[in-house]
Amino acid sequence: MTDGTPSTYGTQRKAAARNRVAIIEAAHELFAQNPLVPLSEVAKRAGVGAGTLYRHFPTREDLILAAYQHDIERLTTTADEVLARQPSAKAAFIEWFETLAAYIRIKHGLGDALHSAAAQDVITASWAPATAAVAKLVDACVAEGTIAPGHDPADIILLMSFLWRVANDDAGAAQGRRLVAAVFSGLQAPPQSV
């Protein structure tokens, strides 16, 4: 339109984009509570009808993958924020990995939906941004002296994977803290060459 009034099509696109985000946010919250939550509950929490949900996400798997991808994308962009908020790089490193562990626990609870080829593509695509975020955290820890230089961020992700394997209860949290302390003891030494 030439009078400066937004087009109906543009308004509909903005509404559709808002609905998509609302659905993904609702799915994130509800899948964290119960990975088997009915999609009707997701639609209700998002404030949309079932038809709107299914227009955006024709299958449950589509929604699960979108929510997982959204969570990982959001997490990988928070390394700087966590570093700025925490009193030390080590504390930021631990907080970031604990958040990642919580996302991955949700992922494991989603079962078969994350074993498809499409899911593997999403998971593979998240590897590079996650590694870049960990590299920022590692660099900050190196600068502070809590990690020796030379450790590969991809190796550290694999090393820290114990966090999403410990029990999701008080005993698991205590075990996780003990293991994090052991990891930092090991990372204070330079990496061994192969």
From TrEMBL:
Taxonomically, which superkingdom?
Bacteria
Asked if the record carries the keyword Protease, the reply is: no
Provide the species name.
Answer: Amycolatopsis carbonis
Q: Which residues bind DNA?
A: 38-57
What is the protein name for this chain? TetR/AcrR family transcriptional regulator
Domain HTH tetR-type, by residue range, is 17-75
Keywords for the protein's UniProt record, in alphabetical order:
DNA-binding, Transcription, Transcription regulation
Q: Report a single Gene Ontology molecular function.
A: DNA-binding transcription factor activity
**Entries under InterPro entries matching the protein:** Homeodomain-like_sf, HTH-type_TetR-like_transc_reg, HTH_TetR, Tet_transcr_reg_TetR-rel_C_sf, TetR_SbtR-like_C
PROSITE patterns assigned: HTH_TETR_2
Q: Which Gene3D superfamilies match?
A: Tetracycline Repressor, domain 2
